[in-house]
Design brief:
DNA_helicase_UvrD/REP; six-stranded parallel sheet; UvrD-helicase domain-containing protein; alpha/beta; binds adenosine-5'-triphosphate
């Protein structure tokens, strides 16, 4: 049994009861900082080590990579690295959905074009295929157990590859996580896939814990129902105020209904441990009661991080704020190169990685090791040039002439558009001032800092002045940002 700063001896009675509840269906609801991740980590370990002869896996999932990583780190810290040796695992929900799809393909319940049973699953097509904005979108559907490519007419234009490129890539065994969801959704309309997945859970997963459960959409809820029939334990953990994935179909109200109709034993954690002083605790209580509030003003240097709804807002704020992602909007290869440059700067100045570094490496088709060896000198030279006030246009040309020798994707774009505005924004951050990281509200979820500054939009300020409404997606995102600080939350002036 672990002990120590986050160990079991320090838990409140409410947390302890939630951790070791013997009920097969447990729901833990709590406000920010009251120990949802702590309880998830402890319950994971308890299930992992209390039935050593049961060969089925103990699995925990969360929605974002950063939240998943946070949970995995805490589990390893409390229970040791053996707690997550195969088949036990802590992965994103997307990874679990891939496992389910691969299971159906492997056992012939579902057939992929070209007969593939293993797939390369991408985060987005943008990193590997040319995409264009339009309303006709290629998608995957399921017809009598066969995955097929179709097109759908959407009400709004979105970016996607052409139907021909899409079809070819799918036949080659490639797809995105969205396509995995489409194929699973299609498959689950048939009874054979549902039965196959219930027996997958029965035979392979003893306990499933879902963190941040209010980010779940209809398909996710359907998968939880299958897990409910198959696993010995299903634990759902979340806070309806912190649901952020409405744009991906999350419906917090539907999740609440599902939980109350499906016989879960509820546990509420009332005490928050994040607030390091009475004022912060008082402010956070007011926020939750939907009461009006204003934030004290402050500068970037008064905070450990600056948060805003959008990256663009952060780039447009104080130049001492270094946002951890950059989107120049002039092409995918340009975006990837700017991300590599940004990553050099964030590593040097903050010891942190740029958020979309992985996507940039996929777009350029290079391994992470190449960054530290082959590409590093070119990137460092570009940064030195930017620091020396050389015009961005010249810096860019020199950089891509150099990179073109070792990265074919760059050679193909040598005469493409130049991300001059993005380079100018990077240049602005290369003075002597100490930099503070900038993150979106979404990226801040599940994390905590001593002091947080928020770049409020006019809409944010008036929402705060009236009191936040958890039924509104923007208010929930703002709420997540407002509840990250231990000692103080400021409005960035
Ligand atoms: N019983 C406890 N005693 C002392 N500290 C605790 C206790 N429970 C949790 N904490 C600490 O409080 C902080 C917040 O806990 P945790 O991250 O688990 O909360 P959370 O509910 O997941 O927060 P959020 O929803 O905002 O992400 C962490 O630093 C954690 O170590």
């Amino acid at each position: 049994m672990p002990s120590g700063s986050n160990g079991i001896r320090t838990l409140t009675p409410q947390q302890l009861t939630a951790c070791d509840s013997p009920q097969p269906r447990v729901y833990v609801e709590a406000a920010p900082g009251s120990g949802k991740t702590t309880v998830s980590a402890l319950r994971f370990g308890l299930h992992r080590f209390t039935a050593p002869t049961d060969r089925r896996a103990v699995v925990a999932v969360s929605f974002t990579r950063s939240a998943t990583e946070e949970l995995r780190t805490r589990v390893i810290r409390q229970w040791g690295p053996s707690s997550v040796t195969w088949p036990h695992r802590i992965v994103t929900l997307d990874t679990l959905l891939c496992d389910l799809l691969f299971h159906l393909l492997h056992y012939g319940v579902l057939h992929w074009p070209g007969g593939h049973t293993e797939l390369e699953v991408l985060d987005t097509w943008r990193t590997t295929l040319p995409t264009k904005s339009g309303r006709i979108r290629p998608v995957l559907q399921v017809d009598k157990g066969q995955v097929v490519v179709r097109t759908v007419n959407e009400s709004q234009s979105t970016s996607h590859p052409s139907a021909t490129d899409f079809k070819r890539a799918v036949s080659d065994g490639r797809c995105t996580h969205d396509n995995v969801r489409e194929a699973l959704q299609g498959a689950l309309t048939g009874n054979s896939a549902r039965q196959a997945l219930i027996s997958y859970f029965e035979c392979n997963v003893r306990s499933l814990t879902v963190d941040e459960v209010f980010d779940a959409n209809d398909l996710d809820r359907d998968v939880f129902s299958l897990a409910l029939s198959g696993c010995s334990f299903l634990t759902l953990v979340g806070d309806p105020w912190q649901a952020l994935y409405q744009f991906r179909g999350a419906r917090p109200a539907a999740m609440k209904e599902y939980i109350s109709e499906s016989g879960f034993t509820p546990h509420h954690l009332d005490e928050s441990f994040r607030w390091g002083n009475d004022r912060q605790a008082w402010l956070m209580r007011r926020l939750r009661r939907r009461m009006p509030m204003t934030l004290p003003p402050g500068s970037a240097h008064d905070a450990d991080v600056v948060l805003a709804h959008r990256w663009k807002t952060l780039w447009g704020s104080d130049p001492r704020v270094l946002p951890l992602a950059i989107k120049p909007g002039v092409g995918q290869v340009q975006e990837a190169i700017c991300t590599l440059l940004l990553n050099e700067i964030t590593q040097n100045a903050l010891g942190q990685q740029a958020v979309f570094l992985h996507d940039a490496l996929v777009t350029l088709n290079i391994e992470k090791e190449a960054l530290a060896t082959t590409l590093h000198p070119y990137l460092q030279t570009a940064i030195t040039h930017l620091k020396s006030a050389i015009p961005p246009s010249l810096v860019w040309q020199t950089l891509i002439d150099g990179l073109a020798h070792c990265v074919p994707a760059v050679a193909a774009q040598q005469h493409g558009r130049k991300p001059l505005r993005a380079l100018a924004l990077l240049q602005l951050r290369l003075g002597d001032a100490e930099l503070v990281p900038g993150l979106t509200c979404h990226q801040s979820k599940g994390r905590e800092w001593n002091k947080v500054a928020i770049k409020l939009s006019e809409a944010d300020a008036s929402a705060l002045a009236l009191g936040l409404d958890p039924a509104q997606a923007d208010h929930r995102a703002l709420y997540v940002a407002l509840t990250r600080a231990r000692f103080g939350t400021l409005a960035l002036t």
